[in-house]
Amino acid sequence: MDMTSTALISTSAAASAAASPPAPRAGPAADRDDRTERERTDQADRAVHQPHFDAAVASGGYAWWYVDALSDDGQHGAVIIGFVGSVFSPYYAWSRRPRAQHAPRALDHCAINVALYGPGRGRWAMTERGADRVQRSATCLQVGPSSMTWNDRGLTISIDEVTVPLPSRLRGTVRLTPQALAGTAYALDAQGRHHWRPIAPRAAVEVAFTQPGLCWRGSGYFDSNYGDEPLADGFRTWDWSRADISSRRSTVLYDVLRRDGSRFALALHFDASGAATAFAAPARVRLPSTRWQIGRATRSDPGDTPRVTRTVEDAPFYARSLLDARLLGEPVKAVHESLSLDRFRSPWVQAMLPFRMPRRAR
Predict the structure, then answer these.
(1) For residue 58, how far is the Cα from the chain centroid?
(2) C-alpha distances in angstroms, 14 versus 10, 17, 21, 85, 130?
(3) How far is residue 204's CA from residue 243's CA, in Å, rounded to a whole number?
(4) Less packed terminus of the chain by CB within 10 Å, N or C?
(5) In what side-by-side order are the strands of the sheet with 249-258?
(6) At the fourth CATH level, which superfamily is domain 52-360?
(7) How far apart are alpha carbons 359 and 142 in whole angstroms?
(8) SS3 category, 47
């Protein structure tokens, strides 16, 4: 905010005295007032950009906070997601059945999901916990022993989890320092029940784990989604991707098939400050299906053929991939996700999920 006032100057002293504003105060008191005003402005700006981990979540609804990171050498990746009302929880889905004795509470189904990728075997942890193991404030989400904490410098994620299906300790810290901040939320459905909110569309990330021994730096991204009903009630399929481009800018693409059969596409360019501008979404391009026959698609500049360079998650209803594509005239390396919510709803998938998402009541 520009705090500079413009003085009015007149050739006539009398006119100047009548037309000019009072002379600004000088001295320590004025300096204190200026500092107080700047602090208020900074606090207001931080409130706009903070994650709001304590946001109300409706019965049957959800909120999640998503972070991804890629190492500078291209060898490692990480995704961490904090869930309140875990959208992929079979236990939450079962609690919404017509015969359920109580209305489902989002706080009873929380988790911090951690996925590490790199040479050799990846690591995955997603233990669901109940409300008595959850603490929330505007700037902190703690689920069991793991937490996500926001301050003036960015986001710190402290992780202490056990992997599945092969149990091993996952203990470490991820620090995300925003290089750009955004504050606008975007409705993904016509009724306004589902929203996406970019927080840091571009960031620097430091990853340090003691178990396993792992340390790297790279680029990252931070956003949030929230909704007043189950995700599968609003959508059938979902493709999303994000990519960094030159001059500290970035792009995000959304392409969803809603439950009512309508399609929605969103293409946003974020400048170095985090200001977003919509651009015309390029033509939709099909990508190879996964081993589980999950369809994938993305958008890329005319004449370009996007390519899947690696599939890092290949699940019965979900895929996470790395792509080479071209956007806004530049080659990009994108993080891409595809989701089939029709497949997620199927009984056989629901029966499999507890093996990947164990639950602890405490």
Answers:
(1) 19
(2) 9, 5, 13, 68, 73
(3) 14
(4) C
(5) 276-278, 263-270, 249-258, 235-245, 330-340, 318-327, 307-314
(6) AttH-like domain (2.40.370.10)
(7) 16
(8) helix
Q: How far apart are CA 49 and CA 278, in angstroms?
A: 20
Q: Which residue has the tokens 């942890």?
A: 125
Tokens read off for 227:
């909704």
Report helix, strand or coil for 350: helix
Please give the C-alpha separations between residue 266 and each of 189, 224, 269, 289, 309, in angstroms, as whole numbers. Answer: 12, 16, 10, 22, 24
Q: Does pLDDT of 38 surpass 60?
A: no
Whole-number Å distance between alpha carbons of 33 and 76: 48
Coil, helix or strand at residue 259? coil
* Residue showing tokens 């996952």: 170
Q: Residue 200 in 3-state DSSP?
A: strand
Q: Report the relative pairing of strands 359-360 and 128-129 from DSSP bridges.
A: parallel
Q: CA 66 to CA 224: how far, in whole Å?
A: 6
Q: Which two tokens stand for residue 199?
A: 């927080």
Structure tokens at 41: 């402005």
Report the Cα 112 to chain-centroid distance in Å. Answer: 13
Domain spans of the chain, in order of start: 52-360
pTM of the model: 0.88
Task: Return mean pLDDT, the chain.
Answer: 90
**Tokens 């008595």, residue located:** 132
pLDDT, tens only, 241-272: 999 999 999 999 999 999 999 999 999 999 99
Q: What are phi and psi of 316, to 5 degrees?
A: -60, -25
Q: How far apart are CA 79 and CA 106, in angstroms?
A: 22
Q: Which residues contact 227 (CB under 8 A, 6 or more apart)?
A: 61, 62, 63, 193, 194, 195, 234
pLDDT surpasses 60 at 203: yes
Question: For residue 312, what are the contacts with CB-CB under 8 A and spacing of at least 6?
Answer: 77, 115, 117, 122, 320, 321, 322
- C-alpha span between 109 and 35 (Å, rounded): 43
